[in-house]
């Protein structure tokens, strides 16, 4: 990571509150897209290549090797793109969007092809290894209240699983696939048996589910909701009783209130990403902040200041050395909150161990 | 028995207060009845703190004294001022006594109109300003300094003018105190050159106590050195004080703004017109030469000192005598003839910005939370919810209605179209 400038004198601060100076070395991609950014995914084979999907209907592949962002390639959907992911070998990028179509892009050849279709916009795509044979396939979740598995060769889905409601978010690690839908349903699928729902529960959070993200161990998942709360959940009931909890985040004290009243401003939790090595995680919200947390010790590792622009999505690269976050309007206030000058920016933050590594108990 | 409140600044008028409580200490020896603190307790917020504190007994007495008694005492003083002043060897003493009594009898405030302190102080100052006997009397100078501090607390320019006046009248020119106070003010105003010259003048005039004078010059030089301020040694205060005090109006000389011949005529026309509107009338001096009396810089006028009330005459409403046996009828309360005015058009956002884009969620036993999400869009009714992405997709008309559900009314979709224009 030599190309991240290391002149920063703040290296090694132990405080949990970071300042903007801690973000000074970030690589900034101004205008990586022409509209709000919906998803960021890193290649599993390369440290500095990532794809970005946007509401402008395009998926772009960026390379920041050398510290300068270069667009590698891009392809288009017929509508806004809502999700993008890389195949395990790093050769293909999948995406789904409001044109209801699932596309697969071959990085080497630069060709994109339609590999599947839903009845409604595709909200989330993930590559998973299913079944006892561990075959790699693509799973897509849609507002048509279903998830579909694709083997990427046939136009028909291998399997379709009906969900309790529209799929809002989906994530997978190892053999665990978790789907968050409207009306706060959570569907858990064991990928050894991908064709059926292993268990459905209700989100413990009071309001709409915004994001789910699975632990590296594949034994549980975190839920973020629109009302500034995160729930840490485990699939196993015993484990859930012992270690499950929920906490508040992405809140600010309301500056316009008189001192006596204690009202906090609450922002939606837009994105949760787990560090691929350390298992700590980052949350990002409509308040423009992102924080690093340690769920096992139940504390915050690092809090970053607000960047005055909501963060719709964050992600780590394959070894967690780079943390990418997008700054663009996440539409949490509807179109009233939008401004014509709302910038679309992606920033890449070089992570330090004191930010993302869990601290040993003294 | 003193009630004192903290003061850190040097007490310029300490002598005055020390006189006050000395006087009352004598009294307290006379009467041994316990002091009624109750009356102080009720009034303590209203008592103006003095540097040297106050006598508790004096305070209780003052607070219990009726207005009639006070009037009697005041009348007594006034009579003595007329009758005895000419016969006294030290007439200043009488004034001091009077001033002492006022500041004691009216503990509420030193500067309100009721106690007439300003009036008596100014009378005293003017009375003795040409008196050779008191030119270098510390007591007289201290009344000046006190007057300056009390009535011109935040008007440094005025304070400086008064000091310049004193300098011209050579009041206190042999007293170190004068030069110290003057230079302190000038330092406050960051006029270091002038301050330096004033202190030097004090040394030239052999102001007493001489050592203190030398000390203050030394201190000043140390200060200057510390702050690294350059002092112009050849600076002449004579010039500065005669020119700089010539009043600048918005940074320009008065003569540049008003030419004497055009001013009165224009003024006349204006008043007749403006009186129709009954708006604020703007004060203008009738004669340009009359107004220059305010200032101390002309030689023939240097003898004249304007009273404070005269300086602030612009702020007064002239009293009008009521005619006897007239009935002016019912006073109309603030009803003005309505003038048709074109009102400015207030812009109203048609997009519906008036709707709150947040939801306040209150739960028993918890802080209210203000969720920065547009709940009207997320939860359009009790049975539905939509994610932010769905709302955005709908607003762009790309949310394909599912044939089976039909949950989204089509007119709703049109409502969201404006966003399309904002964000493309």
From TrEMBL, chain A:
Keywords: Repeat, WD repeat. It holds the Pfam family WD40. InterPro entries: WD40/YVTN_repeat-like_dom_sf, WD40_PAC1, WD40_repeat_dom_sf, WD40_rpt. GO terms for cellular component: cytoplasm; nuclear pore. It comes from the Eukaryota. One of its GO terms (biological process) is nuclear pore localization. WD repeats lie at residues 30-65, 74-115, 138-160. Belongs to the WD repeat rae1 family. This is Uncharacterized protein. It comes from Naumovozyma castellii (Yeast). The lineage of its organism: Eukaryota, Fungi, Dikarya, Ascomycota, Saccharomycotina. The gene is NCAS0A14470.
UniProtKB/TrEMBL annotation, chain B:
One of its GO terms (biological process) is distributive segregation. GO terms for cellular component: mitotic checkpoint complex. Signal peptide: none annotated. InterPro entries: Bub1/Mad3, Mad3/Bub1_I, Mad3/Bub1_II. It comes from Naumovozyma castellii. Residues 253-279 are annotated as: Disordered. Pfam families: Mad3_BUB1_I, Mad3_BUB1_II. Gene3D superfamilies: 1.20.58.2070, 1.25.40.930, 6.10.20.170. Residues 77-247 form the BUB1 N-terminal domain. SMART domains: Mad3_BUB1_I (SM00777). This is BUB1 N-terminal domain-containing protein.
């Amino acid at each position: 990571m030599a190309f991240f400038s290391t002149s920063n004198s703040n290296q090694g601060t132990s405080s949990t509150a970071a300042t903007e100076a801690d973000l000074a070395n970030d690589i900034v991609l101004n205008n990586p897209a022409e509209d709000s950014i919906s998803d960021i995914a890193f290649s599993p084979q390369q440290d500095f290549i990532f794809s970005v999907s946007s509401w402008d209907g395009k998926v772009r592949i960026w390379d920041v090797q050398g510290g300068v962002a270069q667009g590698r390639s891009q392809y288009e959907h017929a509508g806004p793109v809502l999700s993008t992911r890389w195949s395990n070998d790093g050769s293909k990028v999948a995406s789904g969007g409001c044109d209801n179509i699932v596309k697969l892009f071959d990085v080497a050849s630069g060709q994109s092809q339609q590999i599947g279709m839903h009845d409604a916009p595709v909200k989330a795509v993930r590559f998973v290894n299913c079944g006892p044979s561990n075959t790699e396939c693509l799973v897509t979740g849609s507002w048509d209240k279903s998830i579909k598995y694709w083997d990427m060769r046939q136009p028909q889905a291998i399997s379709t699983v009906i969900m309790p409601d529209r799929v809002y978010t989906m994530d997978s690690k190892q053999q665990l696939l978790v789907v968050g839908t409207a009306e706060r349903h959570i569907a858990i699928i064991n990928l050894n048996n991908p064709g059926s729902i292993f268990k459905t529960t209700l989100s413990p959070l009071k309001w709409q589910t915004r994001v789910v993200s699975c632990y590296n161990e594949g034994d549980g998942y975190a839920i973020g909701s629109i009302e500034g709360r995160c729930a840490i959940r485990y699939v196993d009931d015993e484990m859930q009783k012992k270690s499950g909890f929920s906490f508040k985040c992405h809140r600010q004290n309301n500056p316009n209130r008189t001192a006596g009243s204690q009202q906090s401003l609450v922002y939606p939790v837009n994105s949760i990403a787990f560090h691929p090595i350390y298992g700590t995680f980052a949350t990002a919200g409509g308040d423009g902040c992102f924080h690093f947390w340690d769920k096992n010790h139940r504390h915050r590792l690092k809090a970053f200041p607000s960047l005055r622009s909501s963060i719709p999505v964050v992600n780590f690269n394959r070894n967690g050395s780079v943390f990418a976050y997008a700054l663009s309007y996440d539409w949490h206030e509807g179109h009233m909150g939008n401004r014509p000058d709302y910038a679309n920016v992606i920033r890449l933050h070089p992570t330090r161990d004191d930010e993302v590594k869990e601290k040993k108990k003294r | 028995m003193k009630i004192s409140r903290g003061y850190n600044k040097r007490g310029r008028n300490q002598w005055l207060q020390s006189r006050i409580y000395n006087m009352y200490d004598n009294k307290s020896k006379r009467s041994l009845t316990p002091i009624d603190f109750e009356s102080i307790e009720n009034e303590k917020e209203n008592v103006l703190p003095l540097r040297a504190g106050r006598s508790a007994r004096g305070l209780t007495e003052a607070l219990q004294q009726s207005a009639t008694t006070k009037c009697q005492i005041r009348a007594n003083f006034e009579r003595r001022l007329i009758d005895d002043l000419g016969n006294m060897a030290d007439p200043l003493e009488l004034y001091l006594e009077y001033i002492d009594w006022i500041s004691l009898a009216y503990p509420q405030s030193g500067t309100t109109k009721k106690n007439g302190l300003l009036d008596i102080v100014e009378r005293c100052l003017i009375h003795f300003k040409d008196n050779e006997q008191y030119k270098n009397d510390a007591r007289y100078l201290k009344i000046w300094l006190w007057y300056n501090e009390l009535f011109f607390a935040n008007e440094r320019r005025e304070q400086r003018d008064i000091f310049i006046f004193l300098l011209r009248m050579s009041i206190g020119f042999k007293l170190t105190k004068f030069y110290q106070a003057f230079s302190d003010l000038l330092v406050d105003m960051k006029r270091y050159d002038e301050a330096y010259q004033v202190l030097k003048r004090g040394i030239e005039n052999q102001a007493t106590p001489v050592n203190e004078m030398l000390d203050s010059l030394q201190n000043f030089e140390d200060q200057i050195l510390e702050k690294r301020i350059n002092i112009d040694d050849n600076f002449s205060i004579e010039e500065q004080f005669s020119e700089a005090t010539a009043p600048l109006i918005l940074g320009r000389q008065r003569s540049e703004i008003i030419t004497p011949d055009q001013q009165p005529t224009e003024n006349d026309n204006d008043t007749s017109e403006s009186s129709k509107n009954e708006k604020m009338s703007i004060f203008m001096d009738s004669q340009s030469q009359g107004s220059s009396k305010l200032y101390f810089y002309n030689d023939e006028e240097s003898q004249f000192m304007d009273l404070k009330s005269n300086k602030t005459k612009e702020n007064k409403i002239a009293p009008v005598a009521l005619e006897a046996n007239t009935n002016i009828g019912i006073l109309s309360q603030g009803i003005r003839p309505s003038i048709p005015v074109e009102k400015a058009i207030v812009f109203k956002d048609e997009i519906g910005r008036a709707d709150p884009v947040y939801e306040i969620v209150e739960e028993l036993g918890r802080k209210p939370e203000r969720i920065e999400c547009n709940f009207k869009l997320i939860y359009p009714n009790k049975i539905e919810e939509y994610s932010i992405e769905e709302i955005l997709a709908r607003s762009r008309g790309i949310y394909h209605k599912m044939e089976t559900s039909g949950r989204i009314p089509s007119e709703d979709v049109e409502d969201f179209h404006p966003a399309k224009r904002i964000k493309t």
